[in-house]
Amino acid sequence: MKSIVNSLGVVKTWKFWKEMLIMTVGMFIAAAAIYYFQVPGKIVLGTVSGLAIFLSEVLSWSGIVLKVSTIIVILNAFLIVLALLLLGKDFGLKTVYTALIAGPLMDLWEWIKPYQELIEEGQTSVMGDPFLDVICFVIVLSASQAILFHINASSGGLDIIAKIINKYLHLDIGTSVAIVGIIICCTAFFINPFRLVIIGIIGTWINGLALDYFTAGLNKRKRVCIISEHHEEIRRYIIDKLYRGCSLYEVTGGYSGEKSVEIQALLTQNEFAELMSYMRENNMHAFITAGNVSEVYGLWRHSKRRKEKNHLNQNGTVKNE
């Protein structure tokens, strides 16, 4: 009963509905990638949609006609049941939602614009070349997956299988995904020529690289290190204007032997640009290094929220953190 009450409480929050909207948009984009770039050319990549294409073709040999979108729903439903039995609490409800809407969203794209209308005469796919179809598929799908991972969600499918393998065989998630992906790609030998199979395997590999690129871009921060005699002014600007925290370290120059203070802070790209502009406008001489950080764990609050808290602090309505 307590869990039901907690679930109902979560449903009433703005965060819940915002994430539902983001997941729906992310899966809408993913469904477009599958429907327009993978299905027409029957390209089998290491994904559930690739397995669905293979099964759809095999079933058609027996006179059973099932749309790829329908098979995707069946496969994801089966995987969800399997995950609930084998993974239990480790399995996320977000994945249940995204996995179940993939097929219906493909049907929605078919209703909006059937891919047959985009295929020119004499061609067998939207782009007219299997490799171009794979490239477009990978770029669009990776972008949608990055959106989902940004809110700790996933598109289901191979993620579920990978988590099961990780739990019971103790293999890394990345290795698990690669193994399952290669197995699915190899099923294409039964329905596609050798060239298309190789393109599918290459596409699966490129998809992993593209996903890393998009994910890193969404989470990227700047780790900034500043040594300056104006460290106190810079510290106040970071805290009072950028609403970010920073750390101070006493350092000693290896050449001069002079002691100084180094400021370290994690900033967004825009915040880093604001800081550099402030220092230039005030002629603050400093030694600065900056590098990209793709992941941040621990205390990291959005600037807008920090500004709101700071405003409340100034009015004396809440205590400082």
Structure in words:
The chain has 321 residues and is an alpha+beta fold. The chain folds into 2 domains: 2-218, no CATH class; 220-314, Alpha-Beta Plaits (2-Layer Sandwich), CATH 3.30.70.120. Helix content is 61%, strand content 9%. The chain is built from 12 helices and 4 strands, in the order αααααααααβαββαβα. The chain has a 4-stranded antiparallel sheet with strand order 2-3-1-4. Strand 2 and strand 3 (259-267) form a beta hairpin. The longest helix is centred in the middle third of the chain and has 26 residues, at 194-219. Mean pLDDT is 80; it is low at 1-8 and 317-321.
What is the CA–CA distance across the termini?
34 Å
Unreliable stretches: 1-8, 317-321
Tally of strands:
4
The largest β sheet comes out as:
4 strands, antiparallel
Strand order of the largest sheet: 2-3-1-4
Order of helices and strands: HHHHHHHHHEHEEHEH
The helix content is 55-70%
Mean pLDDT: 80
Assign the structural class, choosing from mainly alpha, mainly beta, alpha/beta, alpha+beta, or little secondary structure: alpha+beta
Overall shape: it is elongated
The portion of residues forming beta strands comes to 5-15%
Number of helices: 12
> Measured on Cα atoms, how large is the radius of gyration?
25 Å
The figure for the number of domains is 2
